[in-house]
Write a structure and sequence with these properties.
This protein has helices at residues 17-33, 54-60, 67-79, 153-161, 185-197, and strands at 2-9, 38-40, 82-90, 96-104, 107-113, 134-137, 140-144, 166-170, 200-204, 220-222, 228-231, 239-246, 254-256, 259-260. With 275 residues, it is of the alpha/beta class. A six-stranded mixed β-sheet has the order 5-4-3-2-1-12. The chain has a six-stranded mixed β-sheet with strand order 6-7-8-9-10-11, covered by helices on one side. It is 21% helix and 27% strand. The chain has one domain (2-274): Nitrilase/N-carbamoyl-D-aminoacid amidohydrolase (4-Layer Sandwich). It is globular.
Length: 275
Amino acid sequence: MTVAVAACQVSPVLGDPQANRCIVAAAVGDAANAGAKVVVLPELVSSGYVFSGRAEAARSAEPVDGPTIQLWCSLARTHHLVLVGGFCELGRDDALYNSAVIVDHTGLRAVYRKTHMWDRERLIFTPGDAPPPVVDTEIGRISTMICYDLEFPEWVRIPALAGAQLLAAPVNWPTYPRRDDQRPLEVVRAQADASVNRMAVVACDRTGVERKVGWVGGSVVIDADGWVLAGGNATAEAQTVTAEVDLDLALDKRVGGLSDIHSDRRPELYERVTR
């Protein structure tokens, strides 16, 4: 099945969930009007990212049945699409999680809590301890993880082995000194994730300087061969990156002749990887 996938690279407002709900509603509406059936939003788009500390993050946190996810479910129902986005989750006992949800026209399908904490995130959020979910939707099997999670090949392999056809990743890729003549390394790593797993990947980055932190702005849609279909170039501009993705390619793990990226694995030799 070929499906239009969109990554809405927006600029959330730090500490203002209501404003961010309006930003998301407008972006999702525009993507849907352009034909998108899968829409991906940035990491922590409900709240912004560069918190001064845990107390500030807590003021923007919401439970999974709060107004932000209720809105996203409504948007998915209204536009009949799959929506994946990152939000600041208030869990039990006031725990905070950097989370993502998968919702579709039927409602909330899955919640994922970021497992690998980047830098100061570990001072604010509790890491998740559950594997990336794989959800059967009308248009195919979709999984999600968040930003830094993509840099752990063992973690990305889990949804691939579980049959995911599309990995939708909300990200916030901060800028750092880089070569202007090269594609951002964050995008290159996402291409590798797609290629070595024969699984389409869409990563939705953000824009808008936040407390002097800028962002790569490298939202990208990648096919199961690892090729960039749309986006993938650094920009400071808000934009929606859209491409038609053939999800059926992810059902075929053959990579040439008698080789198969899954059946050729020899996990009995990989024990050191998990130590």
